[in-house]
Amino acid sequence: MPSVPGVPLLVVTVILGACLVVVPLVAAIPVLTVAAALFWLMGSATFSATLIALEVTAASALLVGAGTPPALRALLRFLRTRSPAHDACQRDIKHKTTATAQDKAKRSGRGAATRATKTLAFFHPYCNAGGGGERVLWSAINAVCEEYPHYHCIVYTGDTDASSEQILAKARLRFGVEVDQRRVTFVFLRTRPLVEAELYPRFTMLMQSLASMLMGVEALLAHVPDVFIDTMGYAFVLPLFAGLGMCPAAAYVHYPTISTDMLQKVAKREQDFNNTDSVSASATLSTVKLWYYRIFAFIYGMVGGAASAAMCNSTWTYNHIDALWWGAYNTASIVYPPCDVSQLTSLPLAGRQNVVVSVAQFRPEKNHALQLRALKAFIDTHGRGKEEEDFQIRTNVTYEELQEWLGRALIGLHTMKDEHFGIGVVEFMAAGAIALAHDSAGPQGDIVLPADGKPTGFLASTAEEYAEHMHTILNMTPQQRLEIQTRARESVTKRFSEEQFKQGFLRQMQFLLEG
């Protein structure tokens, strides 16, 4: 277990847990049962930390509705006043908001604005990762800064190896998103190493979720915002801020930590990348894992219920959150992530080569094995071409090289089952490569949808279906292809733009930001 420098966070967590015994912990019985089951696996010290963290989770969720006792609020205020991170955060907020107000006053020729500054905090421990989730973060911050000039944004991050200037510079280079650094303060969390998956070979979801609460405690002691939002999927921090921090909490959910599909696979003993042969082949292990999933799903639904607003990136994600999170039918909505396809839409549609391109990381869930089976089925059924060995694997390509391949390709191949959204499929369609995607989740429910009753791409789930669709596309006339390409490009550019995301995000956050 990595050490956390100079941190008495476990002591703080124990104090919080002890204070929370005033809350009836009957509702925590299922949670504490899980902790007891972990005792023999992890030893007494880890068990004690786990037990206290779980008590905080259950009690915090109850406090969302019951209200935080005044004594506990006083304790939190006392701990914050003793926190160097709190002092540094407050100084940075004051310095930047003062500079912003003075700058506005100079430009307008009037005195500095006197409206009180409020803070909106984003919980995003890996904000420097450069992925699609980070694009959501920076676009959301810009949307709030543009619409609510009296709000100052806080980012809780564990990227201690980069400065705030370096983080914002990477966002600018990677996404072309320019964030005014005077409107953002970073709180660097030293406890992030505790959420690394490799630390927990067993009960990974549960242990990562509990570890995220330690990050949440550290964040809470550094700054309690007026409004809080988790944009990275750490639902267990929601009741900490909503219950202990007494601030409205929201979430942007990219992927549920556990889904009803996962429960069904274990119940049916289906082998998958997250349900290995050794488990699916054993009735006993499958039963144990199913109960573990059920108990975790109960806890996940409880902590998710602390969110006053839950934005989901796709219909598939929404359906799972709606099924699991308490009260989600009142709080959940779909807000598609921002997809900057402006450069891809300039690629010509005509003159495509008979190239099939797949863009994905090498991870088991991306299901590259299905692509190989599909190509074999195509060759077995329709024969080989003249250039039968023309096959390439390109790694770590630049964006310019990716654009080049997407501009040449006739078919964009996607085989991941239950991909929550599928920005790669959006990019295929925007670039003019005819999408051949897996018939599930995001591509099925949100992206490859008919336009005016006519196809914008193709969906498949078996190797034989992929092979037949490839044969169909390759044998289309140029005019037939052009019609599908045109419909696909128009469809995605209308629905998945930066502006559409900003409008949707602000619409769902309005009652929290203006409340």
Please characterize this protein's 3D structure.
- The protein has 515 residues and is α/β, with parallel strands linked by helices.
- The chain has 20 helices and eleven strands.
- It has three domains: 9-79, no CATH class; 82-99 and 116-338 and 499-513, Glycogen Phosphorylase B (Rossmann fold, 3-Layer(aba) Sandwich); 344-496, 3-Layer(aba) Sandwich (Rossmann fold), CATH 3.40.50.2000.
- 53% of the residues lie in helices and 9% in strands.
- The strands form two sheets. The protein has a seven-stranded parallel sheet with strand order 3-2-1-4-5-6-7, sandwiched between helices.
- α2 (29-66) runs parallel beside α11, α14 packs across α18 and α16 (423-431) crosses α19.
- The longest helix has 38 residues, at 29-66.
- The protein is globular and about 75 Å long.
- The model is unreliable at 1-52 (pLDDT under 50).
